[in-house]
Amino acid sequence: MSETLLKPIKAGLIGAGIQASLTPAMHMKEGRAQGLSYEYDLIDLNQLVASIDDLPRLLSEAEERGFSGLNITHPCKQAVMPHLDELSADADSIGAVNTVVLKDGRRYGHNTDWWGFAQSFRRGLPGVDTSFVVQLGAGGAGVATAYAALSLGVAKLAVFDRERQRAIALSRSMQQIFPDAQIIAEGDLMEAMQQASGLIHATPTGMSGYPGLPLPADMLDRRHWVAEIVYFPLETELLRQARQRGCPTLDGGGMAVFQAVGAFQLFTGLQPDANRMLDHFKSMTA
């Protein structure tokens, strides 16, 4: 057995209200399957009565404990960036970090959220029309899904958010990265949906505690495909309504799994079995 496999792996997740996260279970089960001694801790700001101001201390403590890396979630994905030594190109472009590798006294920031969405999309909605896509949500998750969608070849992306300026900021930043695409943050949602081939939903609406629909159900038509990022529950009201209308759909589970696949590889240097991690996720959410 190689030295890599003998070395215990310690990792963790920093965020607020993360006690229900399935990320630790996904990492540790895949670690065991790979022959690793793998520990994964939750570093919950709510449980610690801490805030983003405590990130420097939490990062230092993780280094002192010999962590190989940390996943980062709300509300720390942008706040953690000034405390890192180096950013990957995609993390820098997106302006958010969800994975930090701790190695040789340095902190390397990555973003596997966008890759997770892209991988899930390729598997779950192969061959769909991506000529014109509407996206709801321009927050941290929305930036990652927009980056993924444009990387996958979406020709025209219309972004809508309750905070109009946030949608405008996203469209401008993505336009710089993808100059050949048409990215807009103005206009009428109903009109955009009438022209669009697909919908990406990147807001919390539909999560446990945030029930409901992010747009009127009558805007959905069977010509639309619908991609969701929410995975608690997997069957959101949006997906239920879309399926009733005959729309191809993608739940948020794949993005959750594939961002973990990417982080596992960064933490361990080993290639995880994505299908095995998907099966484990499905067993936990059945």
Automatic annotation (TrEMBL):
Listed under GO biological process in this entry are:
aromatic amino acid family biosynthetic process; chorismate biosynthetic process; shikimate metabolic process
**Under which pathway is this protein filed?**
Metabolic intermediate biosynthesis; chorismate biosynthesis; chorismate from D-erythrose 4-phosphate and phosphoenolpyruvate: step 4/7
List, alphabetically, the GO terms of the cellular component aspect. Answer: cytosol
Q: Which residues form the Shikimate dehydrogenase substrate binding N-terminal domain?
A: 13-100
Under the heading CDD domains, the entry gives: NAD_bind_Shikimate_DH
Tell me the GO molecular function terms.
NADP binding; shikimate 3-dehydrogenase (NADP+) activity
Q: Which Pfam families match?
A: Shikimate_dh_N (PF08501)
Recite the UniProt keywords alphabetically.
Answer: Amino-acid biosynthesis, Aromatic amino acid biosynthesis, Oxidoreductase
Is Ion transport one of the keywords? no
InterPro entries, A to Z: Aminoacid_DH-like_N_sf, NAD(P)-bd_dom_sf, Shikimate_DH-bd_N, Shikimate_DH_fam
Note the NCBIfam families from the entry: PRK12549.1 (NF009201)
Protein name per the record? Shikimate dehydrogenase
Q: Whose protein is this, by species?
A: Phyllobacterium zundukense
